[in-house]
Write a structure and sequence with these properties.
It contains 17 helices and two strands.
């Protein structure tokens, strides 16, 4: 079963759909590997290492599921077929995601990703940067093979948005006065934008006319934008949950070193809320902890106690839950289907996951 969502006791239709989505994701993996294939052994070895980076396959799964939610039952095979536009776009989204992970590991000086050594740890920063560029280039080339260039345009625009978000975050490193509005601007661009475009393209590629149906059965030409809005909310909630796990999670479960962002001066929502709401004395004490923060130091425990004293952990959890609830509200407008049921399950698990 693909790891984006665990399926508790569900209807036979949902379980059957889960098997179909798993088959589609197997097609995505083959397209992904074929697109990156190189005749140069050193390049191929680097590409092969990306297998250890593969995680939840969230973005590809959303491309497929939003496509199914926007399609009729008779179009189901066309969405999940081995060479379908949905499979191609799903592979593209995974390539873009992988590229950002490889580049992030360089920026964060990370040694571990998904419990294994990072590309930069094994092969150096130069190789990791170029491998990320190779992934970006492969994604755009693969996207250009589609009949319509709309997807390529949206993916290109999203790539720019991702980079702008990263640059904005770099600009605010060690800015202990950063506000929540700026945090959300960064997260919407860095994390939300790719998940949003995955959902939007899934709906756009489903059918050209009509592109979807409302509960009343009338054509819904606004479905791609609604799916974009769903993806944006889920993406931001996903990042907030990541930030919470970075502070409170178990490294053996999360699969990477914790509290690295704080060491690099990247403030996340709980810390931003705490610094804005703490008393002057408490804020000064927390700033002292952050100025020379080390994940291995006793300051980690002190920081958690400080965050809990201002309700900042719960504030971040509540923000993520509100975003998930908003996304589910938008999904509720879709006609009932196994795909809709699975999307609702995935929405809930954005904020209940532990890795």
């Amino acid at each position: 079963m693909f790891s984006s969502v665990s399926i508790p006791a569900q209807s036979p239709d949902v379980l059957a759909l889960a098997a179909d989505v798993q088959a589609a994701l197997s097609h995505v993996e083959r397209v992904f590997e074929r697109a990156l294939d190189s005749d140069l052994p050193p390049v191929q070895r680097l590409v092969s290492h990306l297998e250890s980076y593969r995680g939840k396959m969230l973005r590809p799964a959303l491309v497929v599921l939003t496509g199914l939610a926007a399609s009729s039952e008779r179009d189901r095979a066309r969405v999940i077929g081995s060479e379908s536009p949905h499979v191609v776009v799903a592979a593209v989204c995974e390539m873009i995601h992988m590229a950002t992970l490889v580049h992030d590991d360089v920026l964060d000086e990370a040694d571990i990703r998904r419990k294994g050594a990072t590309v930069n740890r094994l092969h150096g920063n130069e190789a990791a940067v170029i491998l990320g560029d190779y992934l970006f280039s492969s994604a755009y080339r693969l996207c250009s093979t589609l009949d319509s260039q709309t997807a390529a345009m949206l993916i290109g625009q999203t790539g720019m948005t991702l980079c702008a978000g990263e640059l904005l975050q770099l600009h605010h490193r060690e800015n202990f006065s950063i506000d929540e509005e700026t945090y959300f601007e960064i997260v919407e661009r860095k994390t939300g934008s790719l998940i949003a475009v995955a959902c939007k393209l899934g709906a756009m590629l489903a059918r050209s006319e009509p592109i979807g149906q409302t509960q009343g059965g009338t054509p819904d030409h606004g479905l791609p934008q609604r799916m974009h809005d769903v993806g944006l909310r889920l993406g931001v909630a996903f990042q907030i949950q990541d930030d919470l796990l970075d502070l409170t999670g178990n490294q053996a479960v999360v699969g990477k070193p914790l509290r690295k962002d704080l060491q690099l001066g990247k403030l996340t929502l709980p810390v931003i809320h705490h610094l804005a709401s703490a008393t002057p004395a408490r804020r000064a004490a927390t700033l002292h902890l952050l100025e020379d923060f080390s994940p291995q130091s006793t300051g980690s425990r002190g920081l958690l106690e400080a965050l809990e004293s201002t309700g900042s952990i719960e504030h971040a959890r509540a923000a993520a839950q509100r975003l998930v609830d908003d996304a589910k509200g938008l999904l509720a407008e879709l006609s009932d289907s196994p795909a809709k049921a699975m999307l609702l399950l995935m929405a809930d698990q954005v904020v209940t996951r532990t890795s």
